[in-house]
Each structure stands twice: as C-alpha cells, then as structure tokens.
Amino acid sequence: MNQFKIKKLVDQAYREAKLSKEEIKSILAEDINKLDYLLQKADQKRTEICGDEVHLRAIIEFSSYCKQNCHYCGLRKDNQQLERYRLRKEEIIKTSQMASELGYQTVVLQSGEDDYPAAEIAEIIKEIKKTTGMAITLSLGERDFDAYKLWREAGADRYLLKHEIASKNLYEKYHPGMSFENRIESLRYLKMLGYQIGSGVIIDLPGQTPDILAEDLLLCQKLELDMIGSGPFIPHQQTPLKGTKTGTVEMTLKFTALSRLLLPLTHIPATTALGTIDDEGRQKALKAGANVVMPNVTDGKYREQYQIYPDKICVNEEAGDCRQCIGSIISSLGRHVSQNKGHSLRK
Ligand code: SAH
C-alpha cells in the first residue's frame, strides 16, 4: 500500500473504530517501517482515552499443574521435565496482601488448568477482598460454568481467558480435546455474569496469517472485551512446537496498535512475552496503544517453574524489585502509575 492509502485507513480506524476484514488484513500485512502513522495514532488514542496513567496488575502464578496439552505451552501435561508446584490457600492470600502493601490495586490469580477446588478459590477471593479490597482477576483457564458463577458471587471482578487464535481449525489443532466454541461460550457467559472480561491472542503461532489475525480483531470487537492482550509466540523445547519460529515484535506492535484503534475503550497490556523477546518490548507497546503492565509477584523460588515459555524475564527477581523496575520504565516514558483500580473503560 502507498502512504496515502495507509493514512486513509488509519484515519478511518481512528475516527470510527471500524475497518473491514480486508482493510485490517492489509495493514497487518504491511511492513512496520511504513506504519509509523498507525503507531502514532494508536498512541494518540491511548492518550485521549486513558491519559498518561498506566495500570499495574500484580500477577500470582499460583499453580503450574495443568491437565491440558496445548501445543505451545511449557505447562502442558505431557511435559514431564517440569517440576510442578501449587501454592496453598494461605500462601496465595499472603502474596496478595504483600502485593497490596506494594501498592498494587489489582491481583491476577493465574494457573494452569489445575483442578484447584472451586470452593477453595472462592474462599481465597473472599479473604483477599476482605483484607485488601483489591480488584481480583482470575486466569485459570476453562472451568465449569457453576465455578465461574461461584467465584463471581465471592467477589471476583474480572476473568482473563485468551481465545488464542480465531481459527477453529488451528485452535483445535493446538488445543487437543478442547473446543473453540466452548472457549467463546465461556467468555460470553463470564460477561453475562458481570465479569469484566479479557481475552486476546498469541501472535505468530505457526500457520497464523494476517487473515486470521484480522478475524481475531473482529472477534474481540464482537465479544465487547474489557481487556485485550497479545504476546508473541515463544517456542518451548518440551512442546510439539519446539524448533518453530519465535513471534515478532513487529506483528505484536501492529496488533496492539490496531487493538487500540478498533477497541478504543479496552485495557491493553504491554505483555511480559514481548519484554522477553525484546528488552524494549514493553516500552514499545506502551507507545503503541498499551496502558497496562502485569508485573510478577510470585515468590522467587517458583518463578522458574512457571515456564509457559523459556527465558521469561524477571525469574530471578523478587516482587519489590519488579515493582520498582516497572515504575522506572513507566516514568522514563513520561507516564505514571495509576492510583485507582483501573476497572473497565466501558462503564
Ligand atoms: N491456563 C490459563 C492460563 C494460561 S497461561 C488459561 O488457559 O487461560 C497465560 C497465557 O500464556 C496463555 O493464554 C497464552 O496466551 C500464553 N502462552 C502460553 N504459552 C506460550 C508461549 N509458548 N509463547 C507465548 N505465549 C504463551
């Protein structure tokens, strides 16, 4: 595309938050060197909608047990080389309280698909709410619909469940025994229960095309997401996708910028995966539409074992260091850490 055509499409996205699948696809297929205007307008939209505040979400990776076998993920059941751990209820609550003391206003409880008892999760939610008042996001994968309801009633505010790839074929190829419909149904049900919902994709999974990524963005619009995340695919040695190509910073940034323009009222994280493949990755995303960072507060001794992908940054750090490091990244960009919970921008 020539610059004139690119500008026309970006301006339209900026104005109307709407592009056709073909138009989205043509931008995603374009060389990033020709897309300065896209990144710039996404940054401008972020300023208008979110101002200069960045929301931090403290993430606790509380169990690396998983019953699924996702082809890309190091936590997959068949990876027998991974030493597994599961935090007890008291440890999760204590870590949340420590996060609250560090100033975090949201805690994200994340795990593999470990059948952690639903009732116990509900007790954890209630206790965290009662003792810290923090917003609580759950990211536990798919559970039965009664569990989603129980946790919502216990006080959980948000649920993060990436749909990963908007192709039924590839979704079901990479998630043996799982169904694309159930993933989407879960998201719809969670929204109906009053959760703020987050979803998103892995960028550059083998076989993914601009056509599919355009479909992903349209799906995100249809789902009326409150949060949309995208991180580059990082191949893990103990998975069927070992030896395939790492995702690119460029595609991740294009997707991030288009997310901001097409879903202006969403929270968009600068992902840890992007920071892993590029030292400046999170900074770049924060300048291309992102307004959220999710620092790790998991106890140092477990970080290495929550190996969804290799070489994850900050595995040798402790929570307080991560908070400081993120704080200085944010101020170096002329932005500041938000003082509020950062609930959905849609409400
Ligand atoms: N079990 C939960 C949490 C999964 S881990 C769930 O199913 O939602 C959180 C995210 O890590 C996943 O949604 C996926 O998008 C990402 N992820 C997993 N393996 C990855 C890899 N090899 N490269 C990049 N991202 C990966």
What features would you describe in this structure?
- This protein has 347 residues and is of the alpha/beta class.
- It has a single domain, classed as Alpha-Beta Barrel (TIM Barrel).
- The chain contains 14 helices and 9 strands.
- It has helices at residues 3-16, 21-28, 36-50, 89-101, 118-132, 145-154, 168-174, 180-192, 210-222, 249-262, 272-277, 281-286, 300-303, 319-332; strands at residues 53-56, 58-63, 106-111, 135-139, 158-160, 196-203, 227-232, 292-293, 336-337.
- The strands form 2 sheets. A 6-stranded parallel β-sheet has the order 2-3-4-5-6-7.
- Helix 1 packs parallel to helix 3, helix 3 (36-50) crosses helix 10 (249-262) and helix 4 runs parallel beside helix 5.
- The mean pLDDT is 97.
- Residues 72-73, 110, 112-113, 139, 141, 161-162, 164, 202, 231, 233-234, 236, 273, 308-309 line the site of S-adenosyl-L-homocysteine.
Overall structural domain count? 1
CA-based gyration radius: 19 Å
What is the distance, rounded to the nearest whole angstrom, between the alpha carbons of the first and last residues? Answer: 37 Å
For the record, the CATH class is: Alpha Beta
Largest sheet, in brief, is: 6 strands, parallel
- Average pLDDT across residues? 97
Q: Could you say which structural class the secondary elements and strand pairing correspond to?
A: alpha/beta
| CATH homologous superfamily title | Aldolase class I
- Topology as a string of helices (H) and strands (E): HHHEEHEHEHEHHEHEHHHEHHE
Secondary structure: helix percent = 40-55%
Output the number of helix runs.
14
Shape: globular
Bound molecules: S-adenosyl-L-homocysteine
Pfam family, one: Radical_SAM
Domain Radical SAM core: 52-274
Keywords: 4Fe-4S, Iron, Iron-sulfur, Metal-binding, S-adenosyl-L-methionine
Binding site for [4Fe-4S] cluster: 66, 70, 73
